[in-house]
Amino acid sequence: MATASASLLLSVHRTRGFFHADVRRPAAAATSRVPAGKSASSLFSDSVTVAAHRALVQEEDKNLREDPTDERVVLPTNDSSEKLLPFEIEIRNVMCAHVMAMAVQKLFPHSKVTIGPWIDNGFYYDFDMESLTDRDLKRIKKEMDQIIKRNLPVLREEVSKEEAQNRILAINEPYKLEILESIKDDSITIYHIGDEWWDLCTGPHVDSTGFIDTKAVELESVAGAYWRGDENNKMLQRIYGTAWETEEQLKAYFKFKEEAKRRDHRRLGQDLDLFSIQVFYLIIPFSQSLFP
Question: Three-state SS for 221?
Fold first, then answer.
């Protein structure tokens, strides 16, 4: 939904204890977090549990009534922009993924690249490498900033499939070789960042890394991901990042995420001593402790 401010205005409120966002159209019914194959009643099997849930909702509603303002969070959206067209937003996110991959391989020379697509509000890239920490993400972001500030040219090159194969073998990138083998066309497109790094990509791309605003990009998290989504394959390190047109949009995005986290019923329930979710809940479903 495009607006003059290139943002989506969301009114954040509660619907029966769950986070809900009103996008200025009739609100859909709140969806509970009931696992597939389980009825809602299986989560509330006795009067004590039902009373605990009701107390949680009443406490949240009370807090909202005591607040004289209608809390609103401005969430920028990559579907609308004052300056960038939709395909330019896609280009920016793909460029960020490439810059991130270049930064990772500069800091971790033995890492192997796989795929790095754009997604809603950002990008990710999967790497075959050792486990990463939050400190590593900060190092990678710092290296990304240096690459961006150098304003390196981004060059497009078309080569034959055989030539691309020879280049990939020369730098020992087995995942890229597997990707190349799945491409039917004989003409392969390669994008270079300066003369230091390149990747298979259909493009298009920006003219230089300086197109990206370092203050409008941030690395969010790292997670495990199987190659090709197959649990029989090797576990990779997936780095998620978010990219925006301006620093203000980036801040609004994180503000929205923090607000959603703060209003999460699972967190509120524990803060109010209504229930406790232990680590073993990840292994044994429905093992939460509910307090009378």
Answer: strand
Q: What tokens does 26 get?
A: 């009739």
Among 215, 8, 205, 187, smallest CA distance to 118 is for: 205
67 in helix, strand or coil? coil
Residue 78: pLDDT band (50, 70, 90) is very low
Q: 272-287: per-residue pLDDT in tens?
A: 555 555 544 444 455 4
Burial 226-240 (b: 16+ CB within 10 A, else e): ebeeeeeeeebbbbb
What count of residues does the chain have?
292
- ∠ CA 281-136-229, rounded to 5°: 55
**Residues 209-263: tens digit of each pLDDT:** 999 999 999 999 999 999 998 899 999 999 999 999 889 999 998 898 888 777 7
Rounded Cα gap, residues 269 and 44, in angstroms: 14
Per domain, the residue ranges of the chain are 7-78+253-290, 86-244
Token look-up 């696992």 returns 35
Strands (E), the chain: 7-15, 18-22, 72-76, 112-113, 118-119, 122-128, 154-160, 187-193, 197-200, 217-226, 235-243, 275-276, 289-290
For domain 86-244, the CATH architecture is 2-Layer Sandwich (3.30)
Q: What are phi and psi of 13, to 5 degrees?
A: -150, -175
Which residue's structure tokens are 């920016």? Answer: 92
Longest dimension (CA), the chain: 70
